Amino acid sequence: MSDTKTRLIKNGRIIDPASQFDQVADIAIRKKKIVGIGSAIPKDFKATDVIDATNLWVLPGIIDLSAYLREPGQENKTRINFETHAAASAGITRICCMPEVDSPIDGGATVKLIKSKAKQAGYARVSVIGSLTQGLAGEQLSHMGSLKYVGCVGVSQGHEKIKDLATLRKAMEYAGTFELPLFLHPIEHSLTAKGGMHEGALSTRLGLAPIPAASETIALAQIIALVELTNTPVHFCRLSCAASIPLLKAAKERGLPITADVAAHQLFLTEMDVADYNPLCHTIPPLRTMADRDALRQAVADGVIDAICSDHQPHEVDAKLAPFEETSPGISGFETLLPLTLRLVDDGVLTEMQAVALLTSKPAQLINSNAGKLQAGAVADLSLFNPQTMWQLEAKKLLSEGKNTPFSGWGFEGKTVQTFVKGKSVYCVKQ
Amino acid sequence: MSKNNTSESFPNERIEHPLALQSVKDSSPGPLPSSMQLTADGKLKHFLTVEGLPPLLLEEILDRAEQFVSLPNKAQVQAPLLRGKTVMNLFFENSTRTRTTFELAAKRLSADLVNLDIRNSATTKGESLLDTIRNLEAMGCDMFVVRHSSSSAAHFIARYCAPHISVINAGDGRHAHPTQAMLDMLTIRQFKGRDFTPLKIAIIGDIKHSRVARSQIHALTTLCAGEIRLIGPQTLMPEGIENMGVTTYANIEKGLHDIDVIITLRLQHERMDTAMLPSVREFYARYGLTQERLELAKKDAIVMHPGPVNRGVEIDSRVADGAQSVILQQVTNGIAVRMAVMSMVMSSQAASAVEN
């Protein structure tokens, strides 16, 4: 990979939702930044490297709001350099790394370690979402002031329980003090069960512990009430049920500072995919009914849900080699994020522009990033995508160390061929 | 990036061990379809669940069990069907009755039997279920009888064990207990005849946590039972159970009206701690099978219980020991049904071995 200082990507179809630009044009890059697009490219611009992007799409780099990078703490699962490489191969240029119990992010040192590992690897960049409470134990507040100081883009309680609503209120207020957005999973823990699935006729037939939709809507309603009380911005992570949508919509219409995302797999899979105890479909929140899936799709199209993320959770093979309820939840999602989202275009749910926006410009706003757009002066985080490549996903060929995908065997149309981060080519398909 | 590892405790390169691939068989995680319990020509290879099995196969199990019932107690000589075969009883969960009847069944078929009390050994030391299975396989084994607290554990073992091994589910989580269901079907057949279509069956108690009830329902619907009623409070009734072809009754008096077969389920005491029920006393007052309630059913109704019985909780002692009780007959039938299933899965293996 030659690292030239100036680059011209010629004749690509540039799709930039931030400016609603969709045309075949050239794009000029100098060092880390975009210099100009089409006729706005300075006349005296000379490229040391010219890339022919005829028949390719030029997309802003994807900003993935949720991934578990497992390091430090769970190096048996994977390492930051493998995962950021896998992300770059799928057009993702920035990853928000989530805290979890086995890899909590409660101190400045951990944040610095994660960032330096990512920088050293040199693929996709990593933004860090810190722990809301120390060790995610749900009792004592984390050092949010320090977390903000070392550049965390938000704080989260992950999938873990918080002691009570009073603690959550204080955590929200304290995070608000430092203008740290909260990334909260709406989960009422007393109504969920470890290793369970969506409550219904199927959970009864399979004998798996039931998780009702109310476990999400109750938590959602409680947090919305606390947002009203504290006026702290909250981003809801990973919605799963239809009943959440009207609650979210009403709160947004009241002008509350609320946003939400959904995991790409939740827009495709349903409880029926668990019917033969497939541990690859064991997720938190659980896969729900077809009606829920369709409502989520509609909410994404309507803009009630603001972003689609991968919720990337790579696992070592053993974590999924057990009876369903004993397996670790989560899907290795980086490499299916863009293909699945674009499939929603084929399914008539989204336009191409909407699909790209949900992965780039919209999540950029949520983490106050100036990336996610293709405009003069913006950071040159972008990818080239060949919409004509037909390919079939094979789990063992994933670049992520986590081969835990239920989408093995699915056919997709279109593939990322090259990814640039800060103007540097970090991934390129060998011709 | 791979050079300066000095500050790191883990190497950054992917390490491919030369033996890594050949030591592991097909171990990619994936679905566990229940269709794998049948061979290509429809014979029983594993017995994991009753659900989805054809009625004729269930009849075959019952017919074969009937033959074993009629054999005298010391039947080894007459039925050495499992001679030279090693059966391993893997009980990850407590059981006396099921385990003992499987043990007797295996012995009467002349199998070599090993009882493993796994709760106190490997898995508590952190060994994974798959490793336990691989190790036992390496010791030479033809059949696993598995009880486990996780639903689908038997499916899991069947999916990942060596191809010559058969797996019999002796109860997995809340999912299935197929041999229990079949011994209940045998008992019903002995008292009520081969035709299940006119029969009205009531199952009383903790349906929600009961794998026995689920398997019974599948067996009864497969055998075309006339009507299946489930009786219990809403806290013990799982969501969407009606989809399995049953009707639910909160009122036991209504539910028992005109019933031919009454099955009472064991009530686990820990249900009181989890706010499922206020007390044992209240459960007995509302749902206990008493003599008066028994009289609401048909005169010749039979009373069944999978055991162990909580006298004075789900059933009155007088009913449990009464003329209509067939509880001990169920236990006897348990051995015959398990002999039938064991011999069937072994003969399906012998058949496939000949083909190969």
Notes on the protein architecture:
The complex is a heterodimer of chains A (431) and B (356). Chain A is of the alpha/beta class. In chain A, 27% of the residues lie in helices and 24% in strands. Chain A has 11 helices and 18 strands. In chain A, the strands form 3 sheets. In chain A, strands 1, 2, 3, 4, 5, 16, 17 and 18 form an 8-stranded mixed β-sheet that branches. In chain A, strands 6-7-8-9-10-13-14-15 form an 8-stranded parallel β-sheet. In chain A, strand 9, helix 4 and strand 10 form a beta-alpha-beta unit. In chain A, helix 1 (80-89) packs across helix 2 (108-121). The longest helix of chain A has 17 residues, at 214-230. Chain A is globular. The mean pLDDT of chain A is 95. Chain B has 356 residues and is α/β, with parallel strands linked by helices. Helix content of chain B is 36%, strand content 13%. Chain B is built from 12 helices and 9 strands. Chain B has helices at residues 20-23, 55-70, 97-108, 129-138, 153-160, 178-192, 211-222, 252-256, 280-287, 291-294, 317-320, 327-355; strands spanning 86-91, 112-117, 143-148, 166-172, 200-204, 227-231, 247-249, 261-264, 302-304. Chain B has a 5-stranded parallel β-sheet. In chain B, strands 2-1-3-4 form a 4-stranded parallel β-sheet, sandwiched between helices. In chain B, strand 5, helix 7 (211-222) and strand 6 (227-231) form a beta-alpha-beta unit. The radius of gyration of chain B is 23 Å and the shape is globular. Classes of the chains: A alpha/beta (431), B alpha/beta (356). Chains A and B meet through helix 5 of A and helix 5 of B.
